[in-house]
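Tokens for arginase. Go.
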Amino acid sequence: MSTIMQRGIHYLQRLNTANVPAALIEKGQNRVIDASLTLIRERAKLKGELVRALGGVVASTSLLGVPLGHNSSFLQGPAFAPPRIREAIWCGSTNSSTEEGKELNDPRVLTDVGDVPVQEIRDCGVEDDRLMNVISESVKLVMEEDPLRPLVLGGDHSISFPVVRAVSEKLGGPVDILHLDAHPDIYDAFEGNKYSHASSFARIMEGGYARRLLQVGLRSITNEGREQGKRFGVEQYEMRTFSRDRHILENLKLGDGVKGVYVSVDVDCLDPAFAPGVSHIEPGGLSFRDVLNILHNLQADVVAADVVEFNPQRDTVDGMTAMVAAKLVRELTAKISK
């Protein structure tokens, strides 16, 4: 457990020991939440005003970090990913152009509204029900500033539930989801935690926030994962049949009849030869070019996306997986912005 998380838990223990009145604690929690949302709101307003002033934009990507790691069933390192991804995006070893020719240094293509202060909120004793609401409200604040569209930097995969919920509620209907992952993350409540990173898509599907869910890259799936997939009508593509399914997956057309398409990329969808810096190392995954071919050829109006489960604490010395996560963000930015 990280020093930061230990400090937060010890702080709560001191509050309980001191018998601080519950009403006083709740008042403090509300102030911290209000301040957190105000920070995101004002940053989003500033970036939205800038993009609108420059003009000529239908959709513009805006980064939102959600450094949450405590719902991971193994390691909590993904909480430290957003700043590492940002650093890699702007690393001088490469340029600001995406493969499709979008320029990331153009604010009409990419802006950044900062991070939801997850640990500061948790340090005040805020439980996950309220924390998930804060994440959802933060996403909605970004979406209120047309033409901004959120690209969320995780964090573990539990963040996808509040983000997708916010996108669906804000748009007024379900979305189609393209989910790239080694795991289906559709357990009812993994290890008793309904907000586990292994349960995020169960929450999404039971909430009616997605019409279609396509899961690609699966190679660590249990009987429960398959049964839950059948229960929710999920289209699950396992790596053992990828060579057969490749033509389908590299020519996807999604979103007709719904409010748009959401893309969720768990970095462990990639074979660990390409991305060793993940909590759950599963050999036999997609190549990086496989993933890019799927994303580049996707015919869809991508209204939001996330990149999750990069764990800097397991990355190689030269930060290879950080660069991989950054490249995913760059190419998703090109897909969203127009």
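The longest strand covers residues 210-218.
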